[in-house]
Amino acid sequence: MNLFESLGLPPTLCLDLEEIEACWRARSKDAHPDAIPSAGKEPGCDIAQINEARDVLSSPVGRLGEWLRLREVDPSQAGGAISSGMMDLFSAVGKVLADADAAIAAHRKAQTALQKSLLTATAIAAQQALQGQMGELRAATDTVVATFPEIEAAAEEASGSHSAAIRAYGELKFLSKWEKECQQRLLSLIGLD
């Protein structure tokens, strides 16, 4: 199964979200169980496959992983050394997550409304720190995504190098994981009563 083909898209890293959404809407309409097949149109993919293609290709790490898979490159090779910039980001994320966990634990331990009220400033500070960190993670993700044209160009050259793609995949996996962890803590802080 080729997820790019599922949406009628070329197998390229350089797609924007609007293009993916437009193709998903068109394919979903055609694949809907109540849809009447149009004359001259080939039967499309099933709706589950179309939805999976949208989910995977909308994510930079998912799109890069699918692109590598189609080139029969194992993205699990994305281990190895982490750049110093990523290590610095990892340290910053770790501190923000630890602070958020401490604020959540303190709030859950609080027995009275007064105790919870006194912890409000700490919870708000943790929320703001998480939001700031998520902004940094998105900026780092955008920086990696900006290299997608060069990654494709390197793969198309005679040598067919995928080393930059594998490195970018590893970085995007970390960035995606850290952003999800920040989102989870933020939701936990917002949900405190």
Could you characterize the architecture of this molecule?
With 193 residues, the chain is mainly alpha-helical. The chain has two domains: 3-58, Helix Hairpins (Orthogonal Bundle); 83-190. The protein is built from nine helices and no strands. It has helices at 3-6, 17-31, 47-58, 60-70, 84-109, 113-118, 120-145, 148-156, 163-190. Helix 2 (17-31) runs antiparallel to helix 3 and helix 5 runs parallel beside helix 9. The chain is flat.
Q: How does the helix and strand content classify structurally? A: mainly alpha
User: Rg, please?
Assistant: 21 Å
Main β-sheet: number of strands, strand sense, barrel status? none
Strand residue percentage: under 5%
Fraction of residues in helix: over 70%
Unreliable stretches covering 5 or more consecutive residues: none
In whole angstroms, the N-to-C terminal distance is: 46 Å
- How many domains? The number is 2
Order of helices and strands: HHHHHHHHH
Count helical runs.
9
Report the average pLDDT across residues. Answer: 89
Shape: flat
Strand tally: 0
Query: What assembly state would you assign to the polypeptide chains in this entry?
Result: single chain
